[in-house]
Amino acid sequence: MPLFFKLVFLCLLVSTQSLVLVSKYTEDQNTDRKSLISFKSALKNPKVLSSWNRTSHHCSWVGVSCQRGRVVSLILSAQGLEGPLCPSLFDLSSLTVLDLSYNLLSGEVPHQISNLKRLKHLSLGDNLLSGELSSELGLLTQLQTLQLGTNSFSGKIPPGLGRLSQLNTLDLSSNGLTGSVPNQLGELIGLQLLDLGNNLLSGSPVTLFKLESLTSLDISNNSFSGPIPPEIGNLKNLSDLYIGINLFSGPLPPQIGDLSRLVNFFAPSCAITGPLPEEISNLKSLSKLDLSNNPLKCSIPKSVGRMDSLSILYLVYSELNGAIPAELGNCKNLKTLMLSFNSLSGVLPEELSKLPMLTFSADKNQLSGPLPAWFGKWNQVESLLLSNNRFTGKIPAEIGNCSALRVISLSSNVLSGEIPRELCNAVELVEIDLDGNFLTGGIDDVFLKCTNLSQLVLMNNQINGSIPEYLAELPLMVLDLDSNNLSGNIPVSLWNSLNLMEFSAANNFLEGSLPAEIGNAVQLERLVLSNNQLGGIIPKEIGNIISLSVLNLNSNMLEGNIPVELGHSVALTTLDLGNNQLSGSIPEKLADLVQLHCLVLSHNKLSGSIPSKPLYFREASIPDSSFFQHLGVFDLSHNMLSGSIPEEMGNLVVVVDLLLNNNKLAGEIPGSLSRLTNLTTLDLSGNMLTGSIPPELVDSSKLQGLYLGNNQLTGTIPGRLGGLCSLVKLNLSGNQLHGPVPRSFQRLERAYSLRFEL
Questions:
Q1: 384-395 per-position pLDDT tens digit
Q2: Where is the signal peptide (predicted)?
């Protein structure tokens, strides 16, 4: 063949191959574009990808990165994407990075994911994905990062993940994965970060302790069991270890001391026992240690004092005993020491004064002796929590030198003497709790300099004098002065506070009247002034406090009518005006208080009828926790109420104790009361009720006390009442009942007080 024709042939061949390559290149680009369009179309909200349109090149779209026209990276984290993972997405064969985390993607991961052979980083975490983890994930052999945490995946961890030899990060946390950890995961020798926390995994995690490259391991909040294997000592590169909330048994192995690079060790609530190994002191790099809520049942080892880097130590609820070791004072970086809810005893060692303390918590122990004056050396401490111990003596004035102190709790100790005025030299104080001591003296100017104080609790002491005016100038949200010896009037200025949410001064000797200014305390949610000597009327302005949830004025000398305006306080759950001298009728408006679960108006001079269309006591939501024991009390006893018991009272389904005794109620007992299935006490005694005893009362199966004595009831005793298996007390005396005592009453095995007088 002549040279000319050879050259022509070669040119044609090269041109043909170039055309084929260009065609393939264009085809691949079009395939990528179509895959992206299909993914967008499958979303429930495709408009969030508005830049993905037909007029612009797909490589310019948000989240898309290309090389030579091919999509190599798709990063759409936190874009609000909602819908399934479209299988066409996995036709992006050049993809190396896929990040769709922090969206609302749902459904299963399609098996076509195995097409992404070049994928190095896959992040689908924080979505709503479900189903079992696809075994095809094990075919993505180039993967370096696999993040599938915080979804709803279930089933077992695929053993095939052990083939991902390039993997350095594996996050399967916060799913519903079950079963044991497959042994194949122990083959991921390059793995540096492994997070399996917050699943339902069980068995032993021993295979994970082969992963000597790990720097972070989280297996917390699972159901791993058995002793912690000594192989944990293999993880010498570990800096972060989280094994808490599991079902381990036995003590920490001595090999824990081999983790010389460990910085953070969190093992709360995992059932490990003591004693703590001495080798734990070898963790020279350890900064944070949490062994809370474990049955350690040992003392704090003195060797902990050799942990030079320790800054945070949590040993709460650990059944610790013995004294706090003085050696803890050698931990020069210790800023947070939490020892609450143990059985530690003895005095606080002075060596602790050398620490740069920020938070010291040792409440609910058996610590004793005086509170040390060296507290004043802690000029960085922000929280000092020592309640429920046996500390004695006075509160040291030196605490006022704690210039950063924000919270101090010394409640339930045996402290005495006056509260030192120097306390508020700590001007940053926000919360002071001195409840349950034997503190004396007045508080005339004690808290004057606490200009940031939002919570002051002084209840259950022997404080005397009056409530000072300056308290109204403090930004108090909670003021609790219960059970002291306070006297005089409540300062009018206190009612003008725009911050006060809780004010309690029950069980004192306060006098005077409630002023109209009480209506200015519009933020008030809880007002408790029971057992004082307050007189006068309840001002109508109290109805301005629409956020009021608890109002307790029991056992005072209040008189006049119950203000109709109280019906405006629609948030009321507890209203207790009992043991006063109130008169007039019960305002119908009170029946509109739909959240009311405790109504006590007993021992007054109220007259008229019971409101006939009650909306209260209908729904059992959770009330103010401090009044939980009063949930369901409806007490109108010892008044002069007349008329009949409304049929509608059968709708008060939340009622536990219904007390209408010692009034002038007439008519028959409504059978509708049998609908009160939560009722434990029904007292209708001392009225003028007629007719027969409704046999339907047997439907109130929780009834323990039934008091119908001293009425004008007739007929026989219903035999069905013998079915009240919970009944303890029954009084039917002082009526006009006849006939024998039903034999069924022999079944009332719990009853120890039965009165009939037939």
A1: 999 999 999 999
A2: 1-18
The Cα-based distances of 371 to 326, 346, 353, 377 in angstroms read 16, 12, 12, 13
Query: What pLDDT score does 623 carry?
Result: 39
pLDDT given at position 698: 84
Q: Which residue has the tokens 């320790």?
A: 310
Amino acid at 312: I
The answer to whether the beta carbons of residues 655 and 679 sit under 8 Å apart is yes
CB 112 within 8 A of CB 135: no
Q: Per 3-state DSSP, what percentage of the chain is helix, strand, and coil (rounded to 5)?
A: 25, 25, 50
Strands across the sheet containing 414-418: 321-323, 343-346, 366-370, 390-393, 414-418, 438-440
Q: 643-668: string of b/e by CB count within 10 Å (b at 16+)?
A: ebbbebbbbbebbbbbbbbbbebeee
d(CA 462, CA 669): 48
> What DSSP state is assigned to residue 413?
S
Instruction: Judge whether residue 366 has pLDDT over 50.
Output: yes
Work out the angle at residue 565's Cα, subtended by the Cα atoms of residues 561 and 571, and round it to the nearest 5 degrees.
Answer: 120
Q: How many Cβ atoms sit within 10 Å of the Cβ of residue 468?
A: 18
- Asked if residue 77 lies in contact with residue 101, where contact means CB atoms within 8 angstroms, the answer is yes
Kindly give the pairing relationship between strand 70-75 and strand 64-67: antiparallel
DSSP 268: T
Residue of 269, 247, 150 whose CA lies nearest to 202: 247
Dihedral (CA of 72, 77, 83, 85) sign: positive
pLDDT in tens, 612-622: 776 665 554 43
d(CA 553, CA 572): 14
- From residue 298, give the alpha-carbon distance in Å to each of 98, 274, 323: 50, 6, 11
CB-CB contact of 253 with 275 (8 Å): no
Using alpha carbons, select from 689, 616, 607, 626 the residue that is nearest to residue 652.
616
Give the mean pLDDT of 212-234.
Answer: 98
| Opening angle at CA 713, ends 710 and 719, nearest 5 | 110
Rounded distance between C-alpha atoms, residue 224 and residue 201, angstroms: 6
pLDDT in tens, 480-536: 999 999 999 999 999 999 899 999 999 999 999 999 999 999 999 999 999 999 999
Q: Is 610 exposed, middle or buried (0-12, 13-18, 19+ CB in 10 A)?
A: buried
CA distances from 433 to 53, 232, 347, 608 (A): 63, 44, 21, 45
750: number of Cβ within 10 Å: 12
Fold of 661-758: 3.80.10
pLDDT digits (tens, 9 = 90+) for 664-689: 999 999 999 999 989 999 999 999 99
- Position 751 scores a pLDDT of 59
For tokens 């991921």, name the residue: 188
Structure-block tokens of residue 123: 């992040």
- Angle in degrees, CA 564, 566, 569, rounded to 5: 140
Q: Residue 55: what pLDDT?
A: 85
Q: Per residue in 264-300, pLDDT tens?
A: 999 999 999 999 999 999 999 999 999 999 999 999 9
For residue 25, what is the DSSP state?
A: H
- Residue burial 480-496, b: 16+ Cβ < 10 Å; e: rest: bbbbbebeeebbeebbe
Please give the Cα distance from 727 to 707 (Å, whole number). 11
What SS3 string covers 109-151? Answer: CCHHHHHCCCCCEEECCCCEEEEECCHHHHHCCCCCEEECCCC
For residue 19, the SS3 value is helix
- Report yes or no: 433 and 458 within 8 Å, Cβ to Cβ: no
DSSP structural state of residue 740: P
